[in-house]
């Protein structure tokens, strides 16, 4: 029960259904109408019960139900709300004192909207007085304070007299306690939470974490009240920004940092009370995962090879596409390998990671390094090249108006994509600002797109397992850093990055060891997937694509048929319009 039962049971609320209008029999204005009550009943109302007010359809009304005549239930002593700022709320207070009535008002959206307008009007002392009286024993009143009241100062004033134990007794989930109350009463909040068991604290945060401010959540982390990073839920992205912002201030002068995250003053006070220095924050259990990536990027930026060990030691970072690419790619570049060698070695390790399940090519982390453009859509990376003749960019033969492949070293390295990193380490484009398919960064983007395209057809159709590439290519010599000798040595690797034949190695599969050719069509502006399981070969021994580009001979035939079809369409159009 929220409130004690009230004897004022005949008071009700509703909305004017209609009133007045011309009577067809008498030709005069009607002096009556109907109100639809909150219970769904249509109540007759006469003008004599309105105090001289002429109601309009949809007006909120408070009234007394006169049920003496069961065949014609009437609304009497009706108060019409045509102006929320001047409306006399005394009858409404009487109605809200009833347990069932208060709950009904909050359940229905249009009644909640009326109540919201009334409790937020300039003169809302009626509401604060009523809520102060009933709040200690009413979950409905707590809902009004937390969900309907707009002024945070009024929310705090109403809730401050109550202890957190009392609030918990009203609603153990704290669902309707506004976030501002935890910020304004953070010291009492911390004290209350420290008095709870670990399980009780976890239960509180599981219910409430997404309704708390970032300031309060971080302060709870600093206080040791939140130790599980998985508990942080929707605050994850903001905490990542906070960490990057904090590290940027540490690595650079504070004047250079754009403060994207603004915290309340008590968070700084809590930090200094909990930690003697910044390094202690790095080992805070709930914060450790948020520092891993930016600290690794800082080492990459400083060309500190120890970041490779950091990635391998961290299960989370070894499965993160961004750190995987950085740790496998840049040591090869730093060791002086040429582009072809880097391609061979890097794509070999990428294939192994994909086949082992360590990486998922559809992981959104790849798009952080290889951003998408509007031309290829949100799931593929931009691989724009510059067409000098027309002075524009093309992605797979289509115009690209928002190329994402131009490096920008003015931004902070935390925000670097692969083109920024490569440019920073001197591996950019042969012609500045004019990328071509021969350039290493574009080859990388194109290869990742190829993997994404092929991934949709790489599952074995018999057993569903991921097929493996058939490595029948020459080995390549790669220069790699040897931590034992602290020097670069030569190593032989398979050039798996050119794999076009795949097979299933599941010993229980009926299709085991069957070889399947998978590749992109090489026809102009085609890029469809060539899958030998679906396509036949032409007489020249090539798999025939629907575009006709299996070989030069049939490509010419396909182009000729296309021109003939276009001419037929043009001729029909000319005859139709009498040209």
What's the level 1 CATH class of the domain at 1-123?
Mainly Beta
Derived from helix and strand composition plus strand pairing, the structural class reads alpha+beta
The helix fraction, in percent, is 40-55%
Radius of gyration: 35 Å
**Strand line-up of the largest beta sheet:** 3-2-1-4-5
- Looking at the overall shape, the CATH architecture of the domain at 1-123 is Beta Barrel
What is the CATH superfamily label of the domain at 1-123?
Answer: Nucleic acid-binding proteins
CATH topology of the domain at 1-123: OB fold (Dihydrolipoamide Acetyltransferase, E2P)
Q: End-to-end distance, in Å?
A: 84 Å
Tertiary shape? extended
Number-wise, the strands total 14
Strand content: 5-15%
Number of helices: 23
The unreliable regions are 1-9, 253-257
Q: Mean of residue pLDDT?
A: 87
| Largest sheet composition | 5 strands, antiparallel
Can you give keywords for this protein?
four-stranded antiparallel β-sheet; alpha+beta; about 575 residues; 14 strands; five-stranded antiparallel β-sheet; OB fold (Dihydrolipoamide Acetyltransferase, E2P); extended; 23 helices
